[in-house]
């Protein structure tokens, strides 16, 4: 039976540290990390995520602003908000929740965020830095996964890692981080042939496909580490991309859904905001 990578517990530990560091920053330097989140439209899942981000920011002792704008918003309206926060010295992190309503130019908006305030790590400048292995703001979900594996002492050097999914939010940055950690990385996607065989040779599998229980026990070799980034709704219940019940019999470590990767993502967003704040202050 696999050991559970408990994202909820680890997240709580990291958030306690964050809160302490934030309090110290305020005491010593009079600095308060500030985050602005822009939520356009009424996607219910996005509303839940943004609510959790707001709560986490306040709990950490951050200054937090959330702009909720209707789905009828234009690209220009969002660009104006981004520009306002780019120029606001009390804001160190800007996040535009995705997906954006139809007709809004996502690329233009992500490129408008100042790279030093891009706590999502989605600006092409930060994407480039990540891919040449330099320090930068990195996407929260894959960075949370890396932090979780590091905390559990999982060594990635020379390991075969398979990432299922090639999104800009998870799959591609995950692959770049694993390469940086000296893993040998394969990225699988919807056109990949023999996904099952490729996964069966993996020491580490990161599933980010968005298909409920896609990774079954026959994908997994004995002792592999299995990370489940999936968040699917099946009959109203949250369910990952991994068939937890069968895979946990073979894996050495596994993340549950919920309580695995999910809580780490928001914690990482707070860590990124603190990092951006310290950097802005030259600390
Ligand atoms: N939508 C789903 N995941 C994310 C994320 O990590 N950042 C943003 N901005 N939107 C998302």
Helix content: 40-55%
Supply the CATH class of the largest domain.
Answer: Alpha Beta
What gyration radius follows from the Cα positions, in whole Å?
A: 19 Å
Q: Give the number of DSSP strands.
A: 11
Largest sheet: 6 strands, parallel
CATH superfamily of the largest domain: NAD(P)-binding Rossmann-like Domain
Q: What integer is the average pLDDT?
A: 98
* Total domain count: 2
Our estimate of the beta-strand percent is 15-25%
**What pattern of helices and strands is seen along the backbone?**
EHEHEHEHHHEHEHEEEEHEH
Q: What is the overall shape?
A: globular
Structural class: alpha/beta
Could you say what the CATH topology of the largest domain is called? Rossmann fold
CATH arch. level architecture of the largest domain:
3-Layer(aba) Sandwich
Distance between the termini: 44 Å
Brief digest:
This protein is α/β, with parallel strands linked by helices and 283 residues long. It has helices at residues 7-29, 44-60, 75-86, 106-112, 124-131, 140-151, 171-180, 195-200, 244-247, 261-280; strands spanning 3-4, 34-40, 63-69, 93-96, 160-164, 184-188, 204-207, 225-228, 232-234, 237-239, 253-254.
SSE layout:
Layout: E1 3-4, H1 7-29, E2 34-40, H2 44-60, E3 63-69, H3 75-86, E4 93-96, H4 106-112, H5 124-131, H6 140-151, E5 160-164, H7 171-180, E6 184-188, H8 195-200, E7 204-207, E8 225-228, E9 232-234, E10 237-239, H9 244-247, E11 253-254, H10 261-280
Helix pairs in contact: 1-10, 2-10, 3-4, 6-7, 6-10
